[in-house]
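worker-03 picked up job from queue 'complexes'. Input manifest follows; two sequence lines, order preserved.
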Amino acid sequence: MIEVKNLYKSFGEIEVLKGIDEHIMKEEVVVIIGPSGSGKSTFLRCINLMEQPTQGTIKIDGVDITSPKTNINQVRQKVGMVFQQFNLFPHMNVMDNITLAPMKLKGLTKNEAEEVAYTLLDKVGLREKAMEYPNKLSGGQKQRIAIARALAMNPEIMLFDEPTSALDPEMVKEVLEVIRELANEGMTMMIVTHEMGFAKEVGTRLLFMDEGKIIERGNPKEVFANPQEERTRIFLSKVL
Amino acid sequence: MSVWEIFFGNNRYQYMLEGLKFSLLVTAFAAVIGIIIGLVVALLRITEFKPFKFLKEKKYLGRLADFNPFSFVATIYVDIIRGTPSVVQLMIMHTVIFGSVKNVPKLVVAGLAFGINSGAYVAEIIRAGIQGLDKGQMEAARSLGMSYSMAMYYIIIPQAIKNILPALVSEFIILLKETSIVGFIGGMDLLRSANIIISQTYRAFEPLMAVALIYLILTGIFTKIMRIVERRMRVSD
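worker-03 finished. Artifact:
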């Protein structure tokens, strides 16, 4: 479903991604771990072209999204993204946050969009917050709304960029719960995370990145139990 | 001489009314020009227009790759205007630029000078209002599939306006007060009208106090409007 070939990305002089090759299948839940600065967020952000790769190709469903001919806005409608800082639109209430894109981009009527929104709000357990503004919500609630907002476009792939890193500890669980449910439903996902327990439990595959490369990949339980690479071993010994 | 006579003897209050009208007209004229220039200049400054990008790999010309001519010109304009006194700008407009043109109304000369002056400040206010927003907002909008212009229209500009409006109103309060220097080019504004009354009555206190009071009332009204607008917009904060 996602084919990444020979991906490089530099910011000015600094090379962040140094040749990534990866093939992600439908319904996979790929968790990406690694030390900070290893390029895992940048890798994720390349998948929906939040960052423009310096070199290499990314194909989604066979369409090369790095080609200049590709309409990037259409690609992004198929690839939802959830950010560390939630990035809800503070000048709109929860309902408008969720319905804006489906109405403007997919031509849904207000009623249709709101129906979708309520279904998703039920899913994340926040139906009663529909008319609130984001500043009235806790971090965990904001992130669950952000997930609902991304799902409202009915994406085929969801990208999570450290979805719980900005949360107070007691709110991490409610967000992970929502992501876990999505995984159970068969959503194709890529998750950059520092939650090792969650990665082990929910991930169908794990990528360990360091210094802009994928160092090790495999079944999360196996990698955690028996890492093959020295760098993976050192990293895991520090975080577990 | 009674206060009544100072202002109403010989219908002298008419000078003040004329002066007030002139001051307000110059301010309004300048504000319109200032907003138009400000919008254009702010957009020029934030565009990502880099026509020499293709030189990136070249050794010596490489540094040209990041050069943005629009932003460069806009920055020079802002720096020159903010770096010189407005009296000097007004005098240049009057004696140099319009120096050899006869019968140009003072209102036009002053309006242009103050408008061009105000444009630089308005541009900075607008630019700061847009760039001060969390860049995650643009990213979130784009990640949903919105185009740059859609994201600007639905997400960035509504939030930026909230940052911009209060600062814009204070810029126009400053502009209104600043117009009291048009006497330098012979403009018949509020302060000049007070001077005429002073020369006729040999009384300085009352006319000058009246001018100060009128300015205070006008800026007070502006400030009040600004506070109401601010409160209305705070609903979602």
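worker-03 released lock.
The CA atoms of residues 25 and 206 of chain A lie 13 Å apart.
Chain A has a mean pLDDT of 94.
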